[in-house]
Amino acid sequence: MSRGFVKEGDQEEIPLIAPRAPLPAGVANYVTPTGFNLLMEEKEALEEEKRNLPPGNEGERRRAALFIDGKLKLLNERIASARILDSKNQTKDVIRFGAVVEFLNGKKHMKFQIVGVDEADIKQSKVAFTSPIARVLIGKKKDETADFKRGDKTQRLKILSISYPE
Question: CATH number of the domain at 87-163, out of 3.10.50.30, 3.10.450.50, 3.30.1300.10, 3.40.50.2000?
Answer without folding.
Answer: 3.10.50.30
